[in-house]
Amino acid sequence: MNVTQDYVETGNVYHDGNISSNSSMGILNISRPMNTAINIITISILFITMISLGCTMEISKIKAHLLKPKGVAIALLAQFCIMPLTAFSLAKFLKMDSIKALTVLICGCCPGGNLSNIFSLIVKGDMNLSIVMTTCSSISALGFMPLLLYIFSQGFTGLENAVPYIGIITALVLTLVPSAIGILINHYKPNYSSTVKKAGLSMLIISSITLAILSSLAVKDVLWMIFMSDVLSVAALMPLIGFMLGYVMSVICRLNPQCSRTISMETGCQNIQLCTAILKVAFSPQVIGPMFLFPLLYITFQCTEALLLALCFRCYQTVKPQAADTRIQTFDEAQQEDVTVL
Question: What CA–CA distance (Å, rounded) separates 15 from 113?
Fold first, then answer.
């Protein structure tokens, strides 16, 4: 993709006199074959992920939730308000430069990811709501994501005209096509859904490992840039804030605990595959630099924090019955004392 003048100016953020000439003054110079290979693998991962996600969706369950849309509406509000605002606030507070801020905004404005379905299962959430929310957020992102990026990019100097809206919309449309294919497979050929998901998981693992190796080789000279304190802070805080505020919003809206846990997981988990595809394909390596690896950093913290929250929930569930038994025992003892006194 040809780089416009706006992108070039944004990319100049990485020019630093302290960076050696071997690392191209902080600007990536990935060879064309390797860049093409990384782009193809990135798009393939997105396609595999979305078609597998589509195979988990049932049209009847989607209709059932759409007929009673309270939970879905609150979930979408949490997804497209909490995460973009969190991304914008953190980027502003940490005074991130233009390209870092844009990367964080794109990640924050992405729809929910399929990992949220797994974490919702671990915390005993509403799986139907989780899958429907992932579906609806992916469809809604077609309109919300470009709009939110336009609004929040106005708050950063140099980003007003630097957002690749066409590339983002194209990537979003490409996510809907494999999702639709997966839904059709699950609806008309449900016996094949399990096979597609298993094959998809195997291909996803292999392609993800390949992508990680190629990306590490491509950015080895400037890899340290994504481990700077501001980038690490955002990657750690964004999912945690999403999990917490998603749950708080659900409780305020008087949803039951099961739905609240589901919305919490859905809010904090972003579609990292989509984010990576946008950053890698919509921007040239000279512009985005090593920041196209930010989603991998984000997903590391996202999974770690989600698993810790799930562990806390499981521990709470273990302790809760014991606490209830203790209260019952205390109440019985008090009654016995009253009877003795009488």
Answer: 34
Confirm if 255 and 263 have CB atoms less than 8 A apart. Answer: yes
CB 228 within 8 A of CB 19: no
Q: Model-level pTM?
A: 0.75
Asked whether 84 and 148 are in contact (CB, 8 A), the reply is yes
Q: What angle do CA 263, 267, 268 make, to 5 degrees?
A: 125
User: In angstroms, rounded to a whole number, what is the distance separating the alpha carbons of residues 55 and 118?
Assistant: 14
- The answer to whether the CB of 125 falls within 8 A of the CB of 314 is no
What's the token pair of residue 312? 């806390």
**Cross-strand pairs, 270:** 112
Q: What is the dihedral of CA 59, 65, 68, 74, to 10 degrees?
A: -140
Residue 180: which residues within 8 A CB-CB, separation 6 or more? 54
- Rounded Cα distance between 15 and 296, Å, is 24
CA distances to 52, 146, 178, 206, 210 from 199, rounded to whole Å, are 9, 33, 15, 11, 17
Distance CA 273, CA 88 (A): 21
Judge contact between 54 and 182, C-beta under 8 A.
Answer: yes
Q: What is the pLDDT along the chain (342 residues), one digit of tens a residue?
A: 443 344 344 444 434 333 333 333 345 566 777 777 877 887 887 788 778 777 877 777 777 767 777 778 888 888 899 999 999 999 999 988 888 899 999 999 988 877 787 788 888 888 778 878 877 888 888 889 989 998 998 888 777 677 888 888 888 887 788 888 888 888 888 888 888 878 877 787 787 778 777 777 777 766 677 788 899 999 999 999 999 999 999 999 888 888 889 899 989 888 888 888 888 878 877 777 778 888 888 988 998 999 999 898 888 888 876 544 444 444 444 444 554 445
What is the spatial distance between Cα 56 and Cα 130, in angstroms, rounded to a whole number? 11
